[in-house]
């Protein structure tokens, strides 16, 4: 290990003859390479910062401006209108600088000033263009004149290939919506969920809040939006991600599956090696800013390649260790034994990587008496975990092991059991999902992890207690993961609606059939059109969707009427999604108003009621990122199964779905066995039938 080399790099002893000095040549070499690596990283980051700062201009454009100005000046044409002469006059006279030399320096300085002014002008123009969101609200297949002009200008300003953060500082700030508009949209969203009496009480609370408390809170929030890049992101990270005291496993973490039908290799170590290699390739692109910014598509079919990267990578809350280490900590199959593997040389950007070949042999049995220390990271709540860390892992071998693990780039777990899609094997995808989400409760790292080496009975007792909690949490998760292959987005588009709206309305129908009632529904949307944007909530249960759902159970309703109600529901959903993406959502604004009220010590019954409402149906669509890497028309077997997450409410469902290709949608449904109101397999059957029933309306 590099730490061992550094420890013995320099040794000296005091002898009667003087100081005996020993130098480790290998250690000095490693330190030299580490220094070279550090400087290379700094240079690359400095270069990327410069290129990002002057985008959409480039260093070559500066040379063009300098040469054009110099050529014009020497052709007896002064484009500076005397500015070059004034700059030359201000330069100190010296024998080292002749008249011609001072003229050249003056020309370069003037040209640089013109170039920087143009850069600022172009960046302001880009910022204004990125503030235009009218393209999102245009009908599919149609484009207004203003949008056409906007597209043309965006193409002109985006002609140079951008780096990852080229658009970041040009993105507009997330606007603070008017309080009255947010409250109006909130009341509209809860109307189909409340009877007249409850709704009247909520209206009264909202009115009191709007007239008495909200104006003061809104002023503080607007002030915060002026001096921060995003008025939501820092509080969202602090209070939603970092202040939670529940175990991360099941409650916060998520999982992602591999290809559905294809397994590149059945040799576990080979797949592990290639996975590590691919992750490091991606990390190098990330460090160099070579990953292109995220693009999005408008309702009019406009591809916008200048949306930017949203929140900087690295700000997202993650249970993984720090991403800038050079090692990989590997967990052996089902035994809770971990060991470190050096995967990147000290050369850093130019360092030599380990070959993606099998790198170690995993132990085949759990050593006797070895505690399941992974359970301490998975099952414990934050306060007990912090106490155990301070008590058992703050000194000695445990501290050294913990420090080594936390410096690793990531964790790689080698499972003993094989999971995946097996045609004809019922429940295989359910077991696959549970394995990815929580594993055996001791072979996953869910937060800053701990390492083996515990010997005290108190430490063992703490780990065993965490394991029991993690096991109970994992055993309570009810998963149903299935492929819906009757149709995909190809048929949905023939219904003249968006696939996401189609699925969300079908989920409302399925939930009503499953529970006999409607519930507050969460769908995640992005706010990456704004600087450091993260997510916003789309409240998918609307008055329009509930009207359609009720019509499906009313035998008196005609097919034409159901089609009309469905189109109204779909249009409403798409409108709400666009509003959320353009900064006019509901929940992030109310959340920030609540945070301000807590800082000021102001009690608001309205905000307390809003933030206490449970999301009994939490949904999310997994984006199909692999389309850029693989042509699914040519390789239809290379579709992804997407990923999923645990239920948000104890008596609710979590639903994730991925629209893969033209004829496949994969659903991941989660709930808890302990709830008598939920059954993931039953809900999965209702989803299948609801999708078919909605599609039948348009046959």
From TrEMBL:
Protein's membrane topology: Multi-pass membrane protein
PROSITE patterns the UniProt entry points to: ACYLTRANSF_C_1
Alphabetized InterPro entries for the sequence: Carn_acyl_trans, CAT-like_dom_sf, Cho/carn_acyl_trans, Cho/carn_acyl_trans_2, CPT_N
Annotated metabolic or biological route of this protein: Lipid metabolism; fatty acid beta-oxidation
Keywords assigned by UniProt, alphabetized: Acyltransferase, Fatty acid metabolism, Lipid metabolism, Membrane, Mitochondrion, Mitochondrion outer membrane, Transferase, Transmembrane, Transmembrane helix, Transport
GO annotations of cellular component type: mitochondrial outer membrane
One GO term of the biological process aspect: long-chain fatty acid transport
Family designation: Belongs to the carnitine/choline acetyltransferase family.
Protein name: Carnitine O-palmitoyltransferase 1, muscle isoform
């Amino acid at each position: 290990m590099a730490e061992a080399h550094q420890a013995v790099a320099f040794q000296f002893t005091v002898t009667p003859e003087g100081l005996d000095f020993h130098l480790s040549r290998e250690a000095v070499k490693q330190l030299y390479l580490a220094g070279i690596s550090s400087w290379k990283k700094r240079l690359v980051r400095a270069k990327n910062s410069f290129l990002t700062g002057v985008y959409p201009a480039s260093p070559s454009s500066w040379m063009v401006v300098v040469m054009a100005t110099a050529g014009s000046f020497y052709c007896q044409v002064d484009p500076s209108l005397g500015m070059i002469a004034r700059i030359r006059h201000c330069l100190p006279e010296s024998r080292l600088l002749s008249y011609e030399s001072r003229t050249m320096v003056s020309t370069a300085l003037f040209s640089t000033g013109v170039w920087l002014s143009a850069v600022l002008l172009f960046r302001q123009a880009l910022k204004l263009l990125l503030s235009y969101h009218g393209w999102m609200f245009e009908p599919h297949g149609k484009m207004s004149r203003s949008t056409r002009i906007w597209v043309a200008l965006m193409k002109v300003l985006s002609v140079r290939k951008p780096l990852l953060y080229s658009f970041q500082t040009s993105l507009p700030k997330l606007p603070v919506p008017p309080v009255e508009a947010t409250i109006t949209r909130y009341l509209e969203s809860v109307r189909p969920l409340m009877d007249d009496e409850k709704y009247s009480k909520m209206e009264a609370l909202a009115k009191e809040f709007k007239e008495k408390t909200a104006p003061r809170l809104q002023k503080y929030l607007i002030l915060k939006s002026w001096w921060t890049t995003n008025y939501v992101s820092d509080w969202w990270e602090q209070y939603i991600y970092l202040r939670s005291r529940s175990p991360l496993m099941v409650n916060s973490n998520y999982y992602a599956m591999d290809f559905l039908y294809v397994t590149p290799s059945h040799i576990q170590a080979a797949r592990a090696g290639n996975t590590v290699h691919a992750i490091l390739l991606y990390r190098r692109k990330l460090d160099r800013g070579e990953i292109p910014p995220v693009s999005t598509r408008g309702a009019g079919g406009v591809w916008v390649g200048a949306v930017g990267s949203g929140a900087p990578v690295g700000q997202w809350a993650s249970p993984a260790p720090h991403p800038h280490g050079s090692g990989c900590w590997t967990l052996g199959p089902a035994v809770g034994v971990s060991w470190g593997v050096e995967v990147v040389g000290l050369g850093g950007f130019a360092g030599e990587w380990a070959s993606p070949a099998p790198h170690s042999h995993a132990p085949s049995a759990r050593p006797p008496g070895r505690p399941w220390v992974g359970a301490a990271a998975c099952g414990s709540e934050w306060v007990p975990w912090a106490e155990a860390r301070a008590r058992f892992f703050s000194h000695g071998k445990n501290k050294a092991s913990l420090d080594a693990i936390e410096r690793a780039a990531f964790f790689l777990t080698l499972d003993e059991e094989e999971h995946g899609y097996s045609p004809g094997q019922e429940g295989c995808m359910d077991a696959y999902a549970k394995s990815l989400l929580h594993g055996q409760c001791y072979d996953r790292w869910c937060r800053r992890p701990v390492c083996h080496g515990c010997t005290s009975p108190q430490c063992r007792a703490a780990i065993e207690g965490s394991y029991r909690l993690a096991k109970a949490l994992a055993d309570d998760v009810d998963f149903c993961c299935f492929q819906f292959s009757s149709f995909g987005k190809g048929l949905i588009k023939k219904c003249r609606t968006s696939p996401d709206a189609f699925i969300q309305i079908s989920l409302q129908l399925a939930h009503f059939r499953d529970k006999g009632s409607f519930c507050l529904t969460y769908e995640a949307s992005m706010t990456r059109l704004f600087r450091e944007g993260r997510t916003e909530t789309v409240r998918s249960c609307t008055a329009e969707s509930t009207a359609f759902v009720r019509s499906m159970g009313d035998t008196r309703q005609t097919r034409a009427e159901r089609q009309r109600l469905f189109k109204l529901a779909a249009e409403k959903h798409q409108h709400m999604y666009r509003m959320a993406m353009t900064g006019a959502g509901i929940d992030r604004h109310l959340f920030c108003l609540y945070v301000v009220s807590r800082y000021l010590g102001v009690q608001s019954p309205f905000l307390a009621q809003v933030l206490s409402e449970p999301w009994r149906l939490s949904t999310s669509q997994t984006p199909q990122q692999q389309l850029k890497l693989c042509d699914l028309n040519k390789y239809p077997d290379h579709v992804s199964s997407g990923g999923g997450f645990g239920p948000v409410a104890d008596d609710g469902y979590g639903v994730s779905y991925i629209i893969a290709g033209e004829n496949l949608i994969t659903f991941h449904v989660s709930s808890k066995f302990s709830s008598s109101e939920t059954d993931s397999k039953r809900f999965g059957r209702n989803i299948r039938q609801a999708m078919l029933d909605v599609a039948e309306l348009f046959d």
